[in-house]
């Protein structure tokens, strides 16, 4: 097998006195889809932010493709440059979309290619239009984020991440800020990317989706990885009690409490 796209070794991170990551080792192979799960506060967001060095670990090693970064050393110019190179190889999609409100959908998508990749305007626009079409939003090219639904905003954010031609895309709870009826349109786009062989790490509590899209589930608790398994094995017979109780909780939360209310103008059936 070829070298993993991401290799994280002995990664530690403290915030003040709190040990948030307590020695994490994780490899992600090229084309692999890893779903990261775990209770709130277990360190999932911190780990994905450490993967692309948005957050610098206190210790350990992060390698993304050809950029290997030894953490905890001096933050000199060459270290900063290396971190920047590693960051450019990853795309990140956040829970809260983080679109620029003063730019149209197309403007958001082409900002990185124009400013960072220095693509000429016509080339960047062609790329942006292609990517908006790919996430089903060709007709929203000139809309500002305030006029887009949450699901549309998140799809623009995915197009924006892809515009940097990343080697890997990291998703941090991409649907958790969305109304349930908008989840599918975002998950479908992610599933298509998986089908195209994109390497991805996805933090999500959507168990059905995780089961379908993931090659591997990585379960974290208390700042360490406590279980890694193929989705079927993880969801049907998790080895650790901590994983079992977590799954009971998310499945309980996902269960419908009552029949949905009819929408305005619709009759209850
Ligand atoms: N910038 C920060 N400063 C201080 N503490 C932080 C910071 N970011 C995270 N933490 C703490 O680190 C711990 C892990 O946080 P993290 O956001 O990585 O967890 P998570 O698994 O993503 O949780 P959730 O499921 O709620 O998103 C928490 O206790 C959190 O309060
Ligand atoms: Mg989080």
TrEMBL record:
Cited CDD domains: ABC_HisP_GlnQ (cd03262)
Domain ABC transporter positions: 6-247
Cellular localization per UniProt: Cell membrane
Superkingdom per UniProt: Bacteria
Keyword annotations from UniProtKB, A to Z: ATP-binding, Cell membrane, Membrane, Nucleotide-binding, Transport
UniProt xrefs under Pfam families: ABC_tran (PF00005)
Chief location bin: membrane
GO molecular function: ATP binding
Membrane topology: Peripheral membrane protein
Name this polypeptide is given: Amino acid ABC transporter ATP-binding protein
Gene source species: Amycolatopsis tucumanensis
Native organism taxonomy: Bacteria, Bacillati, Actinomycetota, Actinomycetes, Pseudonocardiales
């Amino acid at each position: 097998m070829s070298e993993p796209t991401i290799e994280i070794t002995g990664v530690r991170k403290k915030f003040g006195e709190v040990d948030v990551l307590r020695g994490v080792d994780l490899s992600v192979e090229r084309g692999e889809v890893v779903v990261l799960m775990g209770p709130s506060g277990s360190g999932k967001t911190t780990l994905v932010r450490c993967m692309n060095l948005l957050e610098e670990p206190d210790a350990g090693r992060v390698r993304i493709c050809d950029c290997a970064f030894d953490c905890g050393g001096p933050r000199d110019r060459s270290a900063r440059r290396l971190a920047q190179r590693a960051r450019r190889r990853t795309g990140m999609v956040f829970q809260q979309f983080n679109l620029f409100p003063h730019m149209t959908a197309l403007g958001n998508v082409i900002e990185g290619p124009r400013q960072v990749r220095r693509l000429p305007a016509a080339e960047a626009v062609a790329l942006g239009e292609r990517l908006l079409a790919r996430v089903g939003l060709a007709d929203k090219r000139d809309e500002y984020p305030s006029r887009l639904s949450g699901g549309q905003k998140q799809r623009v954010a995915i197009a924006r991440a892809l515009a940097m031609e990343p080697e890997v895309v990291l998703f941090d709870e991409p649907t958790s800020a969305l109304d349930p009826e908008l989840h599918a349109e975002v998950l479908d786009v992610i599933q298509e990317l998986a089908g195209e062989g994109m390497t991805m790490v996805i933090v999500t509590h959507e168990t059905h989706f995780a089961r379908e899209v993931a090659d591997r589930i990585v379960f974290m608790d208390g700042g360490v990885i406590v279980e890694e398994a193929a989705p079927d094995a993880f969801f049907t017979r998790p080895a650790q009690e901590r994983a079992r109780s977590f799954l009971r909780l998310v499945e309980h939360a996902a269960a419908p409490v009552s029949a949905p209310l009819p929408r305005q103008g619709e009759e209850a059936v």
